[in-house]
């Protein structure tokens, strides 16, 4: 039932067309605390109509309203505060959650529309560091939210597998590398060569010329350079996929920059045909004055392409292949201006999906306040952080529950989940300074706290035994349960809002709110007492378990049944 609609009708019944149904509905507010009611209507908008103070209007209206379907309705200052009937409300919400299960909160607003998501996108021949975590887990969670809202996401790992850096790497490998070392430990050795190149070229700038010549050979299809490039790409993907598997992240396509290397001519030709390409100091640019943006550089003076040239080709390919409802780029906030230019160029080209191109920016992740950089050698490997998190989780589980039968599996779910949740609980545009121990705490605003709350609910249900909740009366009038019940009611709205805002933190914060409300209820109420409300209380516990598990799932985090 739409309780806002019920309250709207109650208010309209005591008005004489002074406000429309839509106006009343829009003005309804959620009070700051449950002690002030469940929904509130501010009477300020009626002051001019009735020529009275809002406080007096609220008092008059509350005396006229039929309160039989509410616990009570009271006037507080200029507000009419509605307290919903706890028994009927809880019965309806708990039935809905238990009947729908994991599908609770599902909607079809996306109508099956395709949504390519450009995400993760590491450079081959470089390790996946903590710097890649954000794009990967934010993109993965947004994909899950899109599914929940009726869209069809297409997760595209747009690999950085082309460009002059491969000229540098090939030069470095030939000078300082050997095949045996790369076969033993591919990524660590390749990155060692890359870092060495950047140290050496400070003293020997001619190395940069050699690297450019080597990349030109790669572009021209020279056999040796192509062989090395393919080898570096293969061993990189093998390494990446082990980490993605640990994170529980999969992709629908790995079309990297190299895939679009032979597809750039079409975009350049469209720009020429539309008269959009103009010369500027020998280079080719698209002027974007009408968007208050600087000209977009499309081709260098020597005819060389740039990132934007490939991204135009990518956008054309995705537009043609997927007919996207939206086109999402989960890329750091430092690229915001670039994506404004890219969107403006695509709009000028008349690309059908350009209007619905969205850059999903996020803040930096730092460790001890320092930005991560492969070039400088300041790398913190994501794989090592995940292993450390799993190890720390296992120690805590052994201390708390030494007899847990599947400790290794649960430690992985808790450790990896803690890293993912620790990122996603932050609004994505905020910067994060990473501290491993803080993420792994079983109390506070952490993933393990939410997981532990779910496991606690499952433990209660196991102790209760086999009780049929399907047809049970779920009218729960315990005031201590009310905060939990109303939090359960909010879940579908949070699912819609998080998807609309591309903001997984809304789900993470919601899961913390529900877990806190449930733990407070558990601390103050005896659940497994044989009385006429036992089934209703167990229904609440079951509903909490379902919604916490689904909330974590939308973040890409597992929910163990025992910890």
What does this structure look like?
The chain is of the alpha/beta class. Among the domains are: 82 residues, Arginyl tRNA synthetase N-terminal domain (Gyrase A, domain 2); 253 residues, HUPs (Rossmann fold). It has 21 helices and 13 strands. The strands form 4 sheets. A 4-stranded parallel sheet has the order 5-4-9-10, with helices on both faces. Strands 1-3-2 form a 3-stranded antiparallel sheet. Strand 4, helix 6 and strand 5 form a beta-alpha-beta unit. The longest helix is centred in the middle third of the chain and has 25 residues.
Furnish the topology, listing elements before pairings.
Layout lengths: L2 H10 L8 H7 L11 E4 L4 H4 L3 H11 L5 E7 L2 E6 L1 H15 L13 E5 L14 H16 L3 E5 L7 H13 L2 H6 L1 H18 L2 H14 L3 H25 L16 H10 L3 E4 L2 E4 L9 E4 L7 H16 L4 E4 L5 H14 L7 E4 L4 E3 L2 E2 L10 H19 L6 H18 L7 E3 L1 H4 L7 H18 L17 H19 L4 H20 L9 H22 L8
Parallel strand pairs: 4-5, 4-9, 9-10, 11-13
Antiparallel strand pairs: 1-3, 2-3, 6-7, 7-8, 11-12
Helix pairs in contact: 5-19, 5-21, 6-19, 7-9, 7-10, 10-11, 12-13, 13-14, 15-16, 18-20, 18-21, 19-20, 19-21, 20-21
CATH architecture of the domain at 114-366: 3-Layer(aba) Sandwich
Structural class: alpha/beta
Low-pLDDT stretches are none
Oligomer: single chain
